[in-house]
């Protein structure tokens, strides 16, 4: 029984990462209607940058977290301004999806050039000794993963509901044309959304790398998992992103105990297909209206 619960907890830890990726995708989609598959690549890039800071410069693992959040928040705004926004003026949403796929592959190539084909990890934030609870062995990094997700959800909720910027972002998500007529800088709101997604990518990558091994080949699996979580929960729904990520991680953790890793991945595809058939808009999503 304890082994079964251990698998569930491990799956939920992965689910926290999927949820953070899906949450970043959801924020971008709700503001700009762009599905950014590159989000999974930025997670791995942030993780390996954190590893380099820790091993090359001697920075403590925990100290790399805020550094990566700042760097990737600013970096994602730059990427959006240089790549996404110019493309959005000339391309359809379908072609923009291909742009993000190209960005994902570019990140994978950058990782191969910069870090080679070896997997990387780094020490846990607060030591390697696990916490023993009711016969279960919980790595302390699990708590950091859960905390990163909780802080992201709470921070995003406070931003969207308690600040003027959040009100402007919600107006842009609802009707960008009407928001622009009210004097809201729609392009700026979209840049802020990409900055938030960059912060979540940094949180996900930096908190997961101490308990796993990451390399250039892991960008696609994380991108796919985050996309599935976002679609299952409902594209554009923050609560749906969290629910979809945790549900996907839980299913993979449970089935991964009895099947090999490749077969466990089928659960993700099966979950996606089931949701698309039964509720195409996702668990918390609403049917899309045509936006003009």
Automatic annotation (TrEMBL):
Keyword Transmembrane helix: yes
Leader sequence residues: none
Key word Cell membrane present: yes
Domain of life: Bacteria
Intracellular or extracellular location(s): Cell membrane
UniProt keywords, alphabetically: Amino-acid transport, Cell membrane, Membrane, Transmembrane, Transmembrane helix, Transport
Membrane-spanning intervals of the chain: 6-29, 41-59, 65-84, 96-115, 142-160, 191-216, 222-251, 263-284
Membrane topology reported for the UniProt record: Multi-pass membrane protein
Pfam family for this entry, one: BPD_transp_2
Similarity comment text for this entry: Belongs to the binding-protein-dependent transport system permease family. LivHM subfamily.
PANTHER family membership: ABC TRANSPORTER PERMEASE PROTEIN, BRANCHED-CHAIN AMINO ACID TRANSPORT SYSTEM PERMEASE PROTEIN LIVH
Designated name of the protein: Branched-chain amino acid ABC transporter permease
Source species of the chain: Nocardioides luteus
Lineage: Bacteria, Bacillati, Actinomycetota, Actinomycetes, Propionibacteriales
């Amino acid at each position: 029984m304890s082994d079964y619960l251990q698998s569930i907890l491990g799956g939920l830890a992965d689910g926290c990462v999927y949820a953070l990726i899906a949450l970043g995708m959801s924020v971008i989609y709700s503001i700009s209607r762009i599905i950014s598959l590159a989000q999974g690549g930025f997670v791995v890039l942030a993780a390996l940058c954190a590893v380099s800071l820790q091993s090359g410069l001697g920075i403590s693992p925990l100290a790399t977290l805020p550094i990566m959040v700042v760097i990737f928040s600013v970096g994602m705004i730059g990427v959006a301004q240089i790549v996404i926004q110019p493309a959005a003026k000339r391309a359809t949403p379908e072609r923009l999806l291909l742009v993000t796929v190209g960005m994902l592959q570019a990140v994978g190539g950058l990782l191969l050039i910069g870090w080679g084909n070896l997997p990387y990890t780094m020490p846990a934030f607060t030591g390697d000794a696990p916490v023993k609870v009711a016969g279960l062995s919980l790595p302390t990094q699990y708590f950091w993963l859960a905390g990163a997700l909780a802080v992201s959800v709470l921070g995003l909720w406070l931003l969207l509901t308690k600040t003027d910027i959040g009100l402007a972002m919600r107006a842009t998500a609802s009707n960008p044309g009407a928001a622009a007529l009210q004097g809201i800088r729609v392009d700026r709101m979209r840049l802020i959304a990409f900055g938030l997604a960059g912060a979540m990518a940094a949180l996900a990558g930096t908190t997961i790398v101490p308990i796993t091994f990451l390399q250039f080949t892991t960008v696609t699996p994380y991108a796919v998992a985050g996309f599935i979580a976002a679609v299952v929960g409902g594209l554009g729904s923050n609560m749906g992103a969290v629910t979809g990520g945790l549900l996907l991680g839980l299913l993979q953790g449970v089935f991964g105990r009895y099947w090999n890793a490749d077969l466990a991945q089928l659960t993700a595809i099966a979950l996606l297909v089931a949701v698309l058939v039964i509720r195409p808009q996702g668990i918390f999503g609403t049917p899309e209206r045509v936006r003009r």
